Amino acid sequence: MGNRVGTRQKPVIMTKAFLEEKIVNELALVEGLNISELQRLVKIDGVERNLVLSLQLEQKSLLNIGNLWKFTLLTKLEIANNYIEEIEGLETLSSLQYLDLSFNYIKVIKGLDGLINLGYLNLSYNEILHLENLDNLKNLETFLVRYNKIKSFESIYYLVQFENLLCLGIEENPLMLIENARFHVLAVLPQLKFLDFVLVTENQLKEALLLYPVEKRSASKNKLFLNYDGQHFSSLWETHPPDKEAFVDGLAKGRGFELLLESDKNFRFLHSFPPAATIAEK
C-alpha cells in the first residue's frame, strides 16, 4: 500500500522542542537568517504564531500530533508518511485550508471539528473503515481517502452533505469493487468534477443517472432519500433488497395511516361512531 515510512526508523514524539527546531530550520532556509540567532530568540520568546503559516512534517517518523495549538494562523499542514494512529491536537487550527495525513495508520476519523475552513483533506493510505465526523467541514472541495478499508456505501451517502466537494479519491477501497461502483458514486455525488483523478464527463454522468435514477437527495440524515416512480422499483430492489421488504404500496400517495389500520376491526368499529362533539351538541 504505497511507500510508508521505513519500519526501522526510530519513532519520534512531536514535542515543543521538536517543532521549534523544525520551524527554526525552515525559517533560516527560506529567509536566509542565521540559525544560531534564531535559536537564541526562540528560547527567549518562543515561536511567534504569525511566523508559521505552513508546516511540512513528512517522513519524520512521528508517533503523534501535538503542540500545534498555538499556531492558529496555520493554513497548510503536511504530516504524511509517519506512524500516526490518531488524529488529535488540531482543534484550534481553524485557519487550516490544507491537511495531508496520508500514509499513516489512522483507523478512525475524528478531531477535525474545528477545521471549518478546510478545503483539502488527504487521508489516503490509512486503515479507515468508515467516513464520519466530518460534518463541520462544509468548505471541503478535495477529499482523498484512497487505499483504505471502506466497505459500506453508506460512507458515500454520508458525503452528500458536502455540496462544495468537487474532487473525490476513493479507489482501492472494498466498496469500489462492486459492479458499476463508479457510476453509483457519480449518481450520489453528481457535482463531482474529478473522481479518482479522472475527469467526469457529461456522458458518464448521464449514464450514472440512468443506472441510478436518484431524484431527491438530503444531507440532513447523511443518506439518500430515493423517490422512484413505479417503473423504477424493480431496479431499486435488485441493488437494495431491504428496500423491497420495507416497501408499502400506496404509502407515497398519502394513504399510509389508512393502509396500516384498514384491516383493524376494532379501529373500524370505533371509527363508525360520530365525533364526541357531535354527541355533546345533541
From TrEMBL:
Subcellular location(s) of the protein: Cytoplasm, Cytoskeleton, Flagellum axoneme
GO cellular component: cilium
Keyword Transcription regulation carried by entry: no
InterPro entries linked: Cilia_flagella_integrity, Leu-rich_rpt, LRR_dom_sf
Job of this protein: Cilium-specific protein required for cilia structures.
Pfam families from the UniProt entry: LRR_9
Keywords, alphabetical: Cell projection, Cilium, Coiled coil, Cytoplasm, Cytoskeleton, Flagellum, Leucine-rich repeat, Repeat
UniProt-recorded name of the protein: Dynein axonemal assembly factor 1 homolog
Keyword Phosphoprotein: no
Main location (coarse class): cytoplasm
Protein family per UniProt: Belongs to the DRC3 family.
Source organism per UniProt: Larinioides sclopetarius
